[in-house]
Amino acid sequence: MTEMLPRAHGSADRCYDRQFFFVFFFLLSFVFIASAHVFAGGREALAFFDAPAGRTILFAAAQERYDSPAAHGRAEEIAARLCAAAGETQGVQIIIRSGDQLNAYALPGRIIVLNAAALSLPEGELAALLAHELGHIVHGDTVAIILRSPRAMSALSGVRAGADGRYDARAAKNVLRAISYGTLTQNEERRADEFAAALLPKAGFSCRDARALLTRMESAYGSVSHANSHLSWAQRRAIFCDDADAPPSAE
After folding, report:
1. Which end of the chain is more exposed for a tag (fewer CB within 10 A), N or C?
2. pTM of this prediction?
3. What span, in angstroms and rounded, lies between the C-alpha atoms of 232 and 206?
């Protein structure tokens, strides 16, 4: 006959189960509250640096990290022309970083970083490169890639506003570090291309220039990996096909 456990032993088990439940619930609550705190703090910092009050601080931090002595007045003029055509009342700021590869990316604070090699592009191709990055800015992608990345939000966990509610250069550097952990989605890249394709003719440029730029980049980079967030070069060129008969922009 199976021996019955003493009643007192069963009560101890139930007490242990309750203690385990409370400890587990406490730890789970702590993790949730800590994560929510980090997320809320990160959102506040990003909102500050993406607004006029914080842009000067972020731009200075980005210049310190990326800027090269190369002149980039032409890029600023083209960017201003694109913003006007897009109906954007706020302009963008351009930072040039050293680099022989054709590359550009957008940062919070309406900042576009260009590799120095882009400055030698014909005007229309440079406009296409800038228009794509402006698309990311207009659609809020520069902030979205941070907000959905736990690693990026973790990088913002130490960011705190001062007594005056403002953030300093150290916080700006954390934002720049955070964005390096995020990645754009293929839909966001497609949307930026579609934005650029619609904007270029409005600004007096040709989509033919964008196709020329993509062909140039394909020659430099090779085929696009399936793991890449961008569409294939052929798919991207197909987006810029609305004015196939228009003459290319003057170089």
Report:
1. N
2. 0.80
3. 21
